[in-house]
Amino acid sequence: MSDRSQSDASRYLQTLAVQPELDIAPGFDSFSTPTYRGSTVVFRNLDELRAYGDPTKTYWRYGLHATPTSEALCQQLAQIEGGRHTLLLPSGMGAISLVYFAFLKSGDDVLVPDNVYGPNRDHGEWLAREFGVSVRYYHPMAGASIASMIRPNTKLIWLEAPGSVTMEVPDTEAIVAAAKARGVLTAIDNTWSAGVYFQPFAKGIDISVQALTKYQSGGSDVLMGAVITADESLHNRLKRTRMVMGWGVSADDCFLVLRGMASMPVRLAAHDRSAREIAEWLTKRPEVTRVLHPALPDCPGHAEWRRDFTGASGLFSIILHSRFGREQVDAFVEALKLYAIGWSWGGAHSLAVPYHVDTMRPAGTWPPAGWENAGELVRLYIGLEDSRDLIADLKQAMEQHLR
Ligand SMILES: *Cc1c(COP(=O)(O)O)cnc(C)c1O
Predict the structure, then answer these.
(1) Which CATH number fits domain 46-261: 3.40.640.10, 3.90.1150.10, 3.40.50.1360, 3.40.50.2000?
(2) Which pTM does this prediction carry?
(3) Of 71, 158, 198, 205, which sits with the fewest C-beta atoms within 10 Å of its C-beta?
């Protein structure tokens, strides 16, 4: 059999297999963002190829760095959060790591809230152990008093609002003012609000990190992170770091996150409504001593939440009475039928995880002074199931195991 193609006698079959002569009609339009997969970016000429770093000549360089698909997501994320530039990373944790590597070197100091997302703490500890970075922890409610902790080599202050698991909402205004007075950069992990309910750049924060794995995706099926800035020189430094590290994301994953974006604000509103209803119900239960939901007065930083946030999301925690031991609390969580046991959140499914907070706060900032009968903590994520079923489920598991 000849390997000459029958339809085009001028080219051999294998060439047509690689470079078919296509005639695709123009004019197809749809709402979805095209998924541009690509490692090689094709230049029109050598002048374009050689114009490295000159954005007036070539915007696109290599599929690792950006594609029109990733760019669509970047622009949308920046618009929602009130920033100007976005970089995408393979996970929220990757976004946190990018901030550390872009702005810290050995000998530098970083201040981290004691209630920070656990893997962020692990990352800092690793930098301290292996790379000679100094990492110190501040009380989540430190506010203006953080000024006394800033040293000449302090380069970065992390914020998280609210903090992971224990949900304190920091006084971001006071912390940012103290940082600015000393020329220290501030970075916030703004995952909880999805950038919708808290606008970091309007508050003077320099860098925002999002785990897009959570609400932006909304599907519990894709991992991605973002670092957003409003300042071009900060962005360029982050971008360069991301490039030398070789970090990028797949266009297919961008497509999945882009699909989630259209419904994100209405999903958030639904999570908020349900979570507040369930949190209110929990305040009336005798098994519960504190409901750590930023929109409720029990939560440290409730006043800051009211001042700075336009809504709440679906994640909060409860503190059970100290008369319930760990085994009882574990049995309660395992008896829940509608709340799955698992990490991550932001999808449609509700989740519950018990935490031993006393082992998570080596800086000794837990429990807050004067908290009576504070026992075990359970973090709840309220998904999109009907809140009446979610309440009934909590009730049955409490009646079974918390007596
Ligand atoms: C989940 C989460 C992250 C990390 O996101 P991954 O994509 O899972 O790495 C970071 N910060 C917060 C507050 C999170 O909840």
Answers:
(1) 3.40.640.10
(2) 0.95
(3) 71
Residues forming beta bridges with residue 85, ordered by sequence position: 229
CB of residue 191 inside a 6 A radius of ligand 1: yes
- Centre of ligand 1 to C-alpha 345, Å, is 9
Per-residue pLDDT of the chain (403 residues), as tens digits, is 456 655 556 788 888 888 888 999 999 999 999 999 999 999 999 998 998 777 777 789 899 999 999 999 999 999 999 999 999 999 999 999 999 999 999 999 999 999 999 999 999 999 999 999 999 999 999 999 999 999 999 999 999 999 999 999 999 999 999 999 999 999 999 999 999 999 999 999 999 999 999 999 999 999 999 999 999 999 999 999 999 999 999 999 999 999 999 999 999 999 999 999 999 999 999 999 999 999 999 999 999 999 999 999 999 999 999 999 999 999 999 999 999 999 999 999 999 999 999 888 888 888 888 888 889 999 999 999 999 999 999 999 999 999 9
**CA of residue 190 to ligand 1 center, whole Å:** 10
Cβ 164 under 6 angstroms from ligand 1: yes
215 lines ligand 1 (CB under 6 A): no
User: Under a CB-based contact definition with an 8 Å cutoff, are residues 258 and 73 in contact?
Assistant: yes
Q: How far is the CA of 2 from the centre of ligand 1 (A)?
A: 57
- The CATH code of the domain at 264-401 is 3.90.1150.10
